[in-house]
Amino acid sequence: MMTEASKPELERERAGTSTAPPDARNKGAGRDSARPLRICLAGSGGGHLRQLLDLAPAWTGHDYFFVTEDTALARSLAQQHPVHYVPHFALGQAKLGAPLQMVKSGWLNFIESGRIVRRERPDLVISTGAGSALFTVAWARLLRAKIVIVESFARFTHLSAFSRLAAPFAHKKVVQSAALSSFWPDAAVFDPLKILSTPRPEKRRLLFATVGATLPFDRMIATVAGLKAQGEIPEDVLMQVGIGGLAPEGIDTVETLTFEQMLASLEDADVVVCHGGTGSLITALRAGCRVIAMPRLYSRGEHYDDHQEDITRAFSDRGLIAVANSPTELLAALKTVREQTPVIATSDPAELIDYLNSLIESGWVQPKASRG
């Protein structure tokens, strides 16, 4: 399925970036500018898709389209941009006891990804992962597109399974942690995390608990609800619980939010309790919230691996968030963040954007004469 609409530049408030003028983006003596460059932006839901949005100055002004999963964020995106949906697929489905589901969803993703790539014929694929984007990358390489793999900002110490599998298809590789250079010595390195000095927005007495765009997280929701019932959370509470997620009685809950609704909730919230996904963490920090993260754990069947523990540890070590894994730890974290001055931070991909623009403008990738 694809939704076509106009392609206005993303505003800074929506994507967290500024955009260069169209004439600046389209300059480049090395590239045949007579034909538009066809760019595929491939990423699964949540933070992977949000990072592609942050890279907007590298792809606005070109003939682009997204390939992603059918999530609330993607549906919101499809209102203004061309979007193709592919089935959710991850190797971790087998780890969580659903190998047949993994094979089925992988096959369906393989077929749909091939159909999209054969029809759209991209010249360049920029992918932030994860599993749902793997076959899009493979098909595009088969049809002679240039491939740029951007390892997720969620990976600080070890490469993701997606990056290990996609590496043979990649012409260029990017990591966002210097530690990953030991795995990919030929990769470009850009650390996008930046502390901001902007004033904190006016906040309501609100705690916003959000599980992110992909999976429910009942343990986190039950922990927050339990403390609220005990009178330990005096703030009003709003919960985004995921499709089919736990919905505690007496608390304002919603399964999904559009990206705009999510931003509005974060703008209001003084305290945010969220899972350990980089998209949720960065968006909350950018909104000036006091942030507590509860990482999803593989041992509890909450995620495909324990990379969220690595993410939350890295953010905590930089003094940006508190981390909690139990009701007792959450109660202590709430006390801590209420007493601290909130840190406002964001991911600033300006250097990565410059790198992508330099690849495009140098003539490294050229438009195909025909897309068949």
Global Rg: 20 Å
> Roughly what percent helix?
25-40%
- Taken from the alpha-carbon principal axes, the silhouette is globular
Uncertain stretches of 5 or more adjacent residues = 1-29
Q: Layout of helices and strands, plus pairs?
A:
Layout: E1 2-3, H1 12-15, H2 22-25, E2 38-43, H3 47-54, H4 56-59, E3 63-68, H5 72-77, E4 83-85, H6 92-95, H7 99-120, E5 124-129, H8 134-142, E6 146-150, H9 161-166, E7 172-175, E8 188-189, E9 193-195, E10 206-210, H10 218-229, E11 236-240, E12 252-254, H11 259-268, E13 271-274, H12 278-286, E14 290-293, H13 307-317, E15 322-323, H14 327-339, E16 345-347, H15 350-361
Parallel strand pairs: 2-3, 2-5, 3-4, 5-6, 6-7, 7-8, 10-11, 10-13, 11-12, 13-14, 14-15
Antiparallel strand pairs: 1-4, 9-16
List keywords for this structure.
17% strand; globular; alpha/beta; 16 strands; 372 residues; disordered N terminus; six-stranded parallel β-sheet; single chain; eight-stranded mixed β-sheet
